[in-house]
Amino acid sequence: MREYRGAEIRNIAVVGHGASGKTSLVDALAFVSGSSKRHGSVKDGTALTDHAAEEIERGYSINLGPAYAEWQDTKINLIDTPGYLDFQGDAIAGLAASDGALCVVSATHGVETGTERTFRDAVRRGDPVLFVVSMMDKEHADFYGALDAMSAFYKAPVEKESRSLMNVVFRLSSEALEEKFVAEAKKQGMVGLKGHRSAGGIRVSTYNAVTVENVKTLVSFLERFAKANG
What we know:
The chain has 230 residues and is of the alpha/beta class. It has eight helices and eight strands. The protein folds into two domains: 6-159, P-loop containing nucleotide triphosphate hydrolases (Rossmann fold, 3-Layer(aba) Sandwich); 166-228, Aspartate Aminotransferase, domain 1 (Alpha-Beta Complex), CATH 3.90.1150.10. β2 (65-71) and β3 (74-80) form a beta hairpin.
């Protein structure tokens, strides 16, 4: 690993309710970025950040677990925090050491007690919060249900107009397919939707309000495009 300057390092706390998928997300991010050479599993006791014997036996985190990912000339330190309230002190400590938070919400359970508490702690500190809906491969997973639950509880961050950008970055198999995607996105007449090439692939951004309807419209379009060009 190369040496990074301070401006090239980000500390991100991964927070949320217990068993919402935080540890699995951290493990996957480290594996995809190449900083970890194996894809571990909480179920098998091989997750990257759950290495204490008690954590492996219980199947959930009880301590802070550090990991990192290198991405586009930036080192991202990932702080895996415990989600159950018995170990909330470590979650608060993780937020104190971070520049922002990834708040993980289960697609099967939506907003839970640990989600509410860690979100409020992050907002109280003035940290930016990015929500991740996890466990979409589980039975009874409901992305829109989780989105609606977040909107109903938080009211402002998901529903009201903000200055934030909603960005989705993904790769397509060819430049021709990328051009087709951008052209079709423009034809849909989605307000504020723009597509352009970036180092990571295609970046789709909406420059107006980040609302539930904008998210639903974008996800629906991505699903239709993937099905038609699969």
